[in-house]
Amino acid sequence: MIEKIKNTASFINEKVAFEPEVGIILGTGLGGLVNHIEIAHSLPYNEIPNFPISTVEGHAGRLIFGTLGGKRVVAMQGRFHYYEGYAPEQVVFPVRVMKMLGIKTLFVSNASGGINSSFRVGDLMVITDHINLIPNVLIGTNCPELGPRFPDMSEPYSKALEALATEVAAENGIKLQYGCYVGTTGPTFETPKEYGYFKAIGGDAVGMSTTPEVIAARHMGLPVFGISIITNAAFSGQKSTHEEVQQEGAKAEKRMTSLIMGMLKRM
Ligand code: HPA
Questions:
Q1: Of the residues 123, 134, 232, which should be mutated to test ligand 1's pocket, given the most ligand atoms within 8 Å of the CB?
Q2: Burial of 58 (0-12, 13-18, 19+ CB in 10 A)
Q3: Ligand 1 pocket test, candidate residues 190, 197, 198, 251, most atoms within 8 A of CB
Q4: Which ligand 1 atom is at minimum distance from the Cα of 234?
Q5: Quick one: which of 24, 119, 148, 195 could link to 114 by a disulfide (CB 3.0–4.6 Å)?
Q6: Given this model, what pLDDT does residue 54 score?
Q7: Bridge partners for 42 per DSSP
Q8: 231: helix, coil or strand?
Q9: What residues pair up with 75 in beta bridges, in sequence order?
């Protein structure tokens, strides 16, 4: 596996010669952040050796290299989900490659259903912790070059980056919520009792991504900032649809963009 990661990283290095400092995974409806990146290079996933190919509607697939908020970033436009049928190590493959390319921090964004009844549709939730209910991506032989067999998970999301987000949000008049993200396999949205169960175990929002990538990042010692757009009020008993998730994601884009750009400027 490590050889594949290294091969892919050297292919990219030869192609783009650009050392990114920050990696960004753009989730549902957040593709618009790309419009703010001063793009230096862009590589479609299907031209990158060993990369899986994204299948979900609304997720384009390319790796974008450029400058955002004064930092050299590599952004994944389109991510890989466990529910698409990828093996867990395929889901996190790009994160491992980005680390090999030199990133020092990982930003992840996603859309989620709000379980905390004080949340409103459209809120941005800083992910402060997670409960991973997707098979753990680190199951199997450990690769010590990537990280330890038993990685610490006491600070899955960086407290320093959370504090920075709070500062930037206050300055820009952006309201933030904070909470625990429950990562499920999907692709079904939850039954009413499942939403209730996730609330009972301490979840504030639920989604179908992110926890595998964060586990892989923490395994490699990368600090992570995670942010989630609450796209549906999961506790309301109303129907959840993919269209609603996309629409609310698009509406929150402006706030998300200023928050992330503001944070990058200060890092
Ligand atoms: N459940 C799971 N994933 C989601 C949801 C939800 O309610 N909303 C957006 N992604």
A1: 232
A2: middle
A3: 190
A4: 7
A5: 119
A6: 61
A7: 64
A8: strand
A9: 24, 64
Supply the pTM of this predicted model: 0.94
User: Do 256 and 109 meet the contact criterion of CB atoms below 8 Å apart?
Assistant: yes
Residue 30 CA to residue 32 CA, distance in Å, equals 5
At which residue do the structure tokens 């009413």 appear?
192
Q: What angle do CA 80, 112, 61 make, to 5 degrees?
A: 25
36, pLDDT greater than 70: yes
For residue 140, report the distance from its CA to the centre of ligand 1, in Å.
28
For residue 214, what are its two tokens? 């964060």
pLDDT for the residue numbered 247: 72
Fold assignment, 2-266: Rossmann fold (3.40.50)
Ligand 1 environment, Cβ below 6 A: 111-113, 189-190, 206-208, 231-232, 234, 240, 245
pLDDT interval class at 53 (50, 70, 90): confident
Pocket test for ligand 1, best of 131, 182, 208, 230 (most atoms within 8 A of CB): 208
pLDDT tens for residues 83-129?
Answer: 999 999 999 999 999 999 999 999 999 999 999 999 999 999 999 99
> Is 99:219 a contact under the CB 8 Å cutoff?
no
Q: What angle do CA 185, 181, 257 make, to 5 degrees?
A: 105
